[in-house]
């Protein structure tokens, strides 16, 4: 009888450990699961003026492929690219002053997206002043790769992506 009573008391105490805030956070996470998964596969870079005080170009990229190394089909590597270019400078990403490659490999296709595109649903860093593009690259068997954005005027930035969780690629333990 004492064991049953002790078990009930311990179960009651364990139930009381989950707070309303934690339950609300779990509910919010479940409602926004797609957003959170895409947020994990999103990277951002800023390109600055020579004195590095003013951001001239802001690039966000989201890797849209599933994180699977062993695919039966070798699908293209697809990225959603958001580009903000300061208004006083060149205003279009389409000019020859900018380029984007995947570890030095040129893209297969680049498509400008409208603001109501279904690709932009559940995307983080969705800003009204950015232009968005769907960029396709040839399939790569690498587990880890870099999306390289180059500007003729402001240099280059590298965005690191992986087909597996990034912590798997590190040799060090935490």
Helix run count: 4
CATH architectural label: Sandwich
Classification by helices and strands: alpha+beta
| Rg calc | 22 Å
CATH classification class: Mainly Beta
Mean pLDDT: 77
Which of globular, elongated, flat, extended, rod-shaped describes the shape? elongated
Trace the largest sheet across and list its strands.
1-2-3-7-6
Would you tell me which CATH topology applies?
Answer: Immunoglobulin-like
Succession of helices and strands: HHHEEEEEEEEEH
How many separate domains make up the residues? 1
Distance between the termini: 45 Å
Brief write-up:
This protein is α+β, with helices and mostly antiparallel strands and 174 residues long.
Structural summary, described in words:
It is a single chain. With 174 residues, the protein is α+β, with helices and mostly antiparallel strands. The chain has a single domain, classed as Immunoglobulin-like (Sandwich), CATH 2.60.40. Helix content is 22%, strand content 34%. A 5-stranded antiparallel beta sheet has the order 1-2-3-7-6. A 4-stranded antiparallel beta sheet has the order 5-4-8-9, with no helix packed on it. The termini are far apart.
